[in-house]
Each structure stands twice: as C-alpha cells, then as structure tokens.
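From the methods appendix. Each design record in this collection lists the tokenized structure first, followed by the designed amino acid sequence. Records were kept in a plain field format so they could be parsed without special tools. The example shown here is representative of the layout used throughout.

RECORD:
FOLD TOKENS (321 positions):
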C-alpha cells in the first residue's frame, strides 16, 4: 500500500513484459463509493495487472470484483495477509486467516461474479495459530470454492505487538511449509512471497513452487526486474536501467499532460541505479528538481545525463594504459 500505484506499475512494466503486477490493496468500500478513476485507473501498458481487494462481505467483494473485471483487470486477488491495525478494524486482511470459511464464501462470490482468475494472497497464520493447520485449512476451503492460485507470504502475522513493517521482517520465514503445500496440492498453483531479495533466490524457490512474488526487492532495486524475462522466463536479452528510463518517458509525458506531478512518477525510480556510478546524483536530481513546480521530463533527462557522465568517468579510470 502507498507503493505500487499506477505509475510504479507502468515503470516496472518497462523492465519486464512477463511479470504480473499488482495494484495496492483497495477496499471494497473505496471501490464501491470512492473515486474509481483515481483508485482503479490504469494504463493499458500495465497488462498483465491484478486488482488486489480488501474486504470480507461476499456481496460487496463480488460487486467490486465485477467493477474491476469490467475495467479490464486480468486477475482479482483477495488480500488475506495485510496486518495493519486499520485492516484489522475493518475485518479484512490477515485477520481473516481466523475465518477460513468466510474467505471461501467470499471467493465463491467473486468467482461467480467474474470470468478472470480469482486468487488469494495470504499468510501462513496469525498470532497463536498453528501454521500447518491454518494455512492448509484456508487453502483447502478456498480450493473447494474453485480457487486454483494462492500467493503465500511464508510468515505468520502478529496482529498485536508488531507494526506492519515489523510483520514483514520479524516473524520467521517458513519456506518448507509452503513447499509442503505444493507437494500435497500439486493441482494448485502456489506462489511464494516473503524475504526473496535476489533472482538467484527466486530460482532456487522455483524448484519447489510455481512462482515467486517480489515486493521490497523489486521496489528498492528495480533493475533486477530487467533480468527477469531472460533469467526466469527464458526469453532473449534483458532491459538495462537506461533502456527502461527511455521506455518510461512517453508514459511520463502523457501523464504530465493530464496534470500529474513529475515527482509522483519519479519517486518509483530512485533505486534504479542502486550500486552503480552516478546513483547518488540520479537520486538527488530526481528528488530535488522533480519536486519543483513545472518539473518536466527534462529533469529525468538531466538525471540520466549524470548517470552517463559517471559511467564515462569510470570507464576512463579503468581503461588500461
């Protein structure tokens, strides 16, 4: 939430054509009563893109799913994993791990409302639940409701005592439990989430499960997505950070013409050149100049020039005498 907005997804799409991207979690109340263009609008370049919903009322979820499918989303995903206090008070997110029958009822309603895939993103359990029981029970009931794809964050969520940030880091990861789920339910598509920071780690997990979901790693160091189509999907070539910036510029120009502030788009690019020559100048130019009134694509071009200058200077320093 507050990260993978439409601009982030459009940017990430320049790096990988094959990766499935997800929206932020949007509550059913927001979908039904809020500004749908602001909350659900997306650019065609984002496909394939999944709409992630939060809610616990089957009727409302069915209607929200129908709206999403009509807008063109490729998948409707129910979040049963977010541990924030706000989510708990609204009876959705990770607290629904305690109500697997309700989750299955919700998924039955969603599946009846749309023809696109309806999927679940969950934790392995919450609080004092035994994960080998809570996870398998949730999956079993949802599978009976016709769900065939599950994205599993391989940690418990502690709903009291840990912040959302701590819930992404402190509860121990239990990858073997998710591997076991796949072994026992080979008929289901199981996607592993949680703590995966590199493509080498992703490939190791893919020996045991059908897919991996990247969160913070893809956001903070998006250049790794430029290698995904080649290393994971077996396609030729990869997308360099410079190529992704150049591919993103037409989108940025379209959005600027609609009145979008440049900083709303460039904030997702700050980590693109992480660990490379010129990375600091890149971040500084985008952060400082991108926030100014009237900032346009010239800011990105100047930041890219700084990268090229730094790379050229490094090449000169390392050139044999």
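DESIGN:
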């Amino acid at each position: 939430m507050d990260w993978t907005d439409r601009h982030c997804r459009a940017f990430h799409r320049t790096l990988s054509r094959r990766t499935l991207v997800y929206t932020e979690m949007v509550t059913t109340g927001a979908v039904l009563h809020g500004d749908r263009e602001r909350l659900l609008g997306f650019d065609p370049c984002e496909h394939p893109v999944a709409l992630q919903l939060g809610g616990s009322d089957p009727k409302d979820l069915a209607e929200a799913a129908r709206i999403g499918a009509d807008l063109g989303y490729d998948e409707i995903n129910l979040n049963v994993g977010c541990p924030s206090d706000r989510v708990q008070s609204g009876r959705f997110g990770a607290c629904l791990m305690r109500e697997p029958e309700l989750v299955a009822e919700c998924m039955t309603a969603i599946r009846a409302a749309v023809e696109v895939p309806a999927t679940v993103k969950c934790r392995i359990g919450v609080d004092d639940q035994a994960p080998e029981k809570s996870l398998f029970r949730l999956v079993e009931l949802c599978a009976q409701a016709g769900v065939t794809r599950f994205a599993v964050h391989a940690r418990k969520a502690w709903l009291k005592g840990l912040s959302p940030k701590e819930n992404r880091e402190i509860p121990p990861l239990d990858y073997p439990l998710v591997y076991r789920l796949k072994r026992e339910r080979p008929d289901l598509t199981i996607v592993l989430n949680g703590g995966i920071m590199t493509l080498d780690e992703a490939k190791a997990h893919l020996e045991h499960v059908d897919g991996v979901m990247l969160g913070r790693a893809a956001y903070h160091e998006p250049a790794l997505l430029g290698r995904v189509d080649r290393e994971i999907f077996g396609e030729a070539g990869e997308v360099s950070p410079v190529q992704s910036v150049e591919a993103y510029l037409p989108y940025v120009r379209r959005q600027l013409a609609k009145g979008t502030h440049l900083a709303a788009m460039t904030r997702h690019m700050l980590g693109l050149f992480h660990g490379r020559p010129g990375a600091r100048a890149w971040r500084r130019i985008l952060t400082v100049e991108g926030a100014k009134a009237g900032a346009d694509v010239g800011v990105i071009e100047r930041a890219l020039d700084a990268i090229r200058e730094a790379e050229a200077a490094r090449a000169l320093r390392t050139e044999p005498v």
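APPENDIX NOTE: The CA atoms of residues 51 and 68 lie 7 Å apart.
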